């Protein structure tokens, strides 16, 4: 039975990896020399765009979803990114990136970047509206190569100048507790209970609970609530309080408001107002 005030998991489409294919649109400007830029656009389709944990040794990458929330994981460290935020990955850095639903993702690849970026391994960046609009324009037909290269300079300079929240790589992702956390990061609304998780992972309920407490210093319920509320903070950029509550697994908006307020010290409505004003 689901915990009081929490909804059953929403129907989540299959990921691109599990379905075996994904739609990609490619926009390249000045490719060949190291000063070029390649923007790959993954349009919203019937599958959830995902990029399994891997690394690229040749290209720096920027991931951004203008119409959805991204989840990024490095080892046991995870973050949810709002549509106003971008993920920077220096070449050679390992990370897993995926959307929370059917959404558009832009994956920008460059070989050279300002030192303000290359000094960072992995970081969350929050560029202004002008930089976001410029990047979005590069993923559309009709942009000349000269315009694209000028836009490249403007975008990278804007990213290098904005505050960065580094994402450190911590630990491994091997235990049953991490299997549970990884699934919840992919679908915060998942209502699977502790006993069902234990059965799925072929361990006892007590063993799984002890593992979660050892790895995350929290009970299963507290871990699930923590992940849901972190996802909610990102989702509030583009959704109402009621919509956000349902997207992260609450059937009751009032239960969601109470939990969010305990975690962040203000109501989700006030939190959203501060986001809009920033």
UniProtKB/TrEMBL annotation:
Residue span(s) of domain HTH araC/xylS-type: 178-274
Keyword list, A-Z: DNA-binding, Transcription, Transcription regulation
Endpoints of the signal sequence: none
Source taxon at top rank: Bacteria
Single GO MF descriptor: DNA-binding transcription factor activity
Pfam families (alphabetical): HTH_18 (PF12833)
Protein's UniProt name: AraC-like DNA-binding protein
């Amino acid at each position: 039975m689901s915990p009081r005030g929490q909804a059953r998991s929403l129907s989540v489409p299959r990921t691109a990896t599990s379905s075996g294919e994904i739609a990609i649109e490619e926009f390249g400007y000045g490719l060949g020399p190291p000063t070029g830029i390649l923007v790959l656009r993954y349009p919203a389709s019937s599958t959830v765009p995902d990029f399994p944990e891997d690394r690229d040794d040749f290209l720096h990458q920027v991931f951004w979803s203008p119409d959805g929330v991204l989840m990024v994981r490095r080892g046991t460290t995870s973050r949810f990114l709002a549509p106003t935020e971008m993920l920077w990955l220096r070449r050679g850095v390992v990370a897993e990136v995926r959307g929370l639903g059917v959404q558009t993702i832009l994956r920008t690849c460059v070989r050279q970047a300002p030192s303000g970026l290359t000094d960072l391994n992995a970081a969350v960046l929050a560029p202004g509206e002008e930089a976001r609009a410029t990047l979005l324009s590069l993923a559309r037909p009709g942009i000349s190569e000269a315009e694209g290269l000028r836009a490249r300079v403007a975008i990278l300079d804007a990213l290098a100048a904005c505050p960065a929240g580094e994402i450190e790589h911590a630990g491994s992702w091997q235990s049953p507790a991490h299997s549970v956390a990884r699934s919840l990061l992919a679908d915060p609304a998942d209502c699977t209970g502790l006993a069902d998780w234990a059965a799925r992972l072929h361990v006892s309920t007590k063993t799984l609970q002890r593992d979660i407490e050892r790895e995350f210093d929290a009970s299963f319920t507290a871990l699930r609530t923590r992940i849901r509320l972190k996802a909610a903070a990102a989702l509030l950029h583009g959704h109402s309080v009621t919509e956000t509550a349902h997207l992260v697994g609450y059937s009751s908006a009032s239960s969601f408001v109470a939990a969010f307020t305990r975690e962040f010290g203000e109501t989700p409505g006030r939190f959203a107002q501060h986001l809009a004003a920033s």
